[in-house]
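Step 1: inspect the first sequence and its tokens.
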Amino acid sequence: NNSVMLNNCVGYPIVSYNEITDARKISELEKRWPQLKYNNNFVIEKQYLWKKEFLKHGSCGIQRYQQPAYFDLAMNLKDKFDLLSTLRNHGITPGSTYQLDDIEKAVMTVSIKVPSLKCIEKPPGNV
């Protein structure tokens, strides 16, 4: 639905996150949507990243997609639009410098619109 941006939906409607307990689902999510900031046991116990992303993005479409469907859809999209492979196929690999325009063109080969990309500076002086 192009009329609704699925971003920053926190607060409306009021939605809660249900901890994922299915070991197979957790394993699938870990492969496709790893929570690299935390160790594995903490990830399974707290699920910070998945919870944050569901509440921020998944809550927008809660009337259409309940939480399990949101995560299934996210994993299917990840599989369908393998961004790292797409970038590699266009000669763009992690750790090198590229023009924003080149990255946008590569992403647009698998998407309809120009991606919304942002450059961040970490540490200072390194964009």
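Step 2: inspect the second sequence and its tokens, then contrast the two.
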Amino acid sequence: DLDECATSPCKDHQYCLNTDGSFSCKGCDASCVGCTGEGSDKCKTCASGYVKEDEKCTDIDECNLPEKVCMKENQDCVNTSGSYKCVCSEGFEDKDGTCVQT
């Protein structure tokens, strides 16, 4: 078997899996920018919104940072994978970018 992976035939956001007589390109974990294999522990570098913790790229909880990320009144922060979103608090709705009571 020739190791086709030795020539790095895959794209930057993929890793190469050598198979008998062939190879396949598999997508890196969402937490990675470039990788050497499957999973968040095989990242070359962590994607934006992720930090290396215990040799793995883990999500940063922007909602628990010391400085608030959702600055508008009556707005709550919701952590998402690799990011966050600001939503109107319960009992409020978004009207032209402002959270007003419903």
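Step 3: confirm your contrast with the notes below.
The radius of gyration is 20 Å. The first strand starts at residue 14 and ends at 19.
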